[in-house]
Design a protein that fits this description.
6-stranded mixed β-sheet; alpha/beta; two-stranded antiparallel sheet
């Protein structure tokens, strides 16, 4: 789509002009770019995403495969992106670059671009993974809002704001670090699947 190509060109030019330290290349969204049933939004690319130039690959890709299997969807049926589109890193103990959470400044710089991206893609609904993605839309925490539909205000710069249904999920990585969240995450996924079925069936009624 021409608008998505232009979006990527504009976003790349904007951040190249800001970059002073040879930041890793931007990783843009992937999937169905025109009215997918869901737009899945993560935090930021990791090492494999930065290397392959594609979101949700490597370990994140395995989490995505399980997510899609539960929802009975294919990757090609949804659109996948991140709030921050480069890999945030810091020096690890061995001197190797390791992932770090995006800073507030990084999130604020990228959020308007995320809003533009959503306006181009026009998904039926949004699914956010973790607090960084959720807080691009609402100033609350995943602990309070997970597993229930919310309304997200999407406010692209210089365009009229609109709302979309938003379903917040815990980030799959947080489940790895906190096994107590496993059951909660699984229950939330099943709730998302059931509500998507209801929406789909309602849409098919004559």
């Amino acid at each position: 789509m021409k608008s998505m190509l232009q979006f990527r060109r504009d976003c790349t030019a904007f951040f190249q002009a800001l970059s002073e330290d040879g930041q890793s290349p931007l990783v843009f969204g992937d999937g169905l770019e025109n009215r997918p049933v869901l737009m899945l939004i993560g935090e930021a690319p990791g090492e494999q995403e930065a290397l392959q130039g594609k979101p949700f690959v490597g370990k994140a890709g395995k989490n995505l495969a399980r997510f899609l299997e539960t929802l009975e969807l294919r990757r090609e049926e949804i659109y996948i992106s991140n709030v921050v589109k480069f890999r945030p890193t810091k020096a690890g103990a061995s001197g190797r670059r390791v992932n770090r959470p995006p800073t507030r400044e990084e999130r604020e710089l990228f959020t308007p671009w995320l809003m533009k991206e959503i306006a181009i893609v026009k998904p039926d609904a949004l699914v956010t993974l973790g607090n960084v993605a959720l807080q691009a839309f609402v100033k609350d925490t995943i602990g309070n809002l997970h597993g229930a539909w919310q309304r997200a205000v999407v406010a692209p710069p210089e365009k009229k704001a609109f709302t979309l249904p938003l379903f917040p999920l815990y980030h799959p990585a947080s489940v790895i670090y906190n096994r107590a969240l496993t059951a909660v995450y699984e229950e939330d996924l099943l709730r998302l699947r059931e509500t998507l079925r209801v929406k789909s069936n309602a849409g098919n009624d004559d």
